[in-house]
Write a structure and sequence with these properties.
By secondary structure, the protein is mostly helical. The protein has 14 helices and no strands. It has helices at residues 3-11, 23-47, 53-68, 76-108, 114-121, 124-135, 142-159, 164-168, 174-196, 202-226, 235-263, 265-270, 275-287, 293-311. Helix 1 runs parallel beside helix 9 (174-196), helix 2 packs antiparallel against helix 11 and helix 3 (53-68) runs antiparallel to helix 4. It starts with a helix and ends in an 11-residue tail after the last helix.
Amino acid sequence: MAFHLWAVGDASAEKPQVSTESEAAGYAAGLLTWALAGSVFVAVKMAITEMPPWTFCFWRVLLSALVLVPLVASHHSDMLAFLRKRWPEALFIGAIGLGLTQGVMFTALGHTSAVNVGIIFGITPIVTMVAARFVLHEPMNSWQGLGSVIAFAGIVFIAVHGSLTNLLGLKLELGDIIALGGVVLFAGYTILLKRAKFELPRLPLLVLLLFGGAIATFPFFLIEFVRGEHANLAETGYLALLYTAIPGGALMYLFYNWSVDVLGASRAGALLYTQMIFTAFFAWLIIGEAIEWYHYAGAGLIIIGILFVTLLKPADPASAPK
């Protein structure tokens, strides 16, 4: 799960770096980023009966942040100065994007398949674009609006399992509804992050937002602990947590930063749509989740919608002839 990387990379005030590394290395790092992100959904699904969702979220976010802290040592003074000025905003935005969003998505995995969650979360950038049109007044043309409708239709198609009877009877999977709630939360996080315009490079900013997410999810972890929801916790749960926190967390963030430095934020971010493909593949390969015909049909609609949104963007006013 790495969509928060895309948001931080898009909203951070860090200046683009000029890289002499080959574009092939940048694309390889980018694809590895989203492969790791897709595998996180599968790892959580595997261990959800052992590790409660909010416990999983709290420890994953906290461990990822702690692993990254030494790597941003040169920025520690800037991070402290930033916190002295803007800690309430950073805490609140980190709580929404890296805490509540992930906790909600992990909860969804307890009620629906990893394939469904991965595909549904794939429309996050489109929902963000539509919300930004009304909140931030960012441009959006009619083709992008049509693409958004087509992509949403794909999500609905998957949620009702391609059944008109389910659609007319509003028989939706609880997990799919929860996942859509996570999409809405993440869209809010991205918009707030863009509006905040934090003056901090990508990786140090991400570390601070991760700590904000850990603080926000700590009370939910305590509730699960008091309720005794860890009674089944065993080796699978611990291994899944370590995987999602280190290879699927800290290492994933480093690969994403590398891809942005080589390709730029726009091209590196465009690869994020491959996460739904990786999620479906790993879910089929590792935990045997079936990929049904309605997954293919719904994903096809989503891809068409994404193409409308990404290829038919409004013209940049700055590039228009004078």
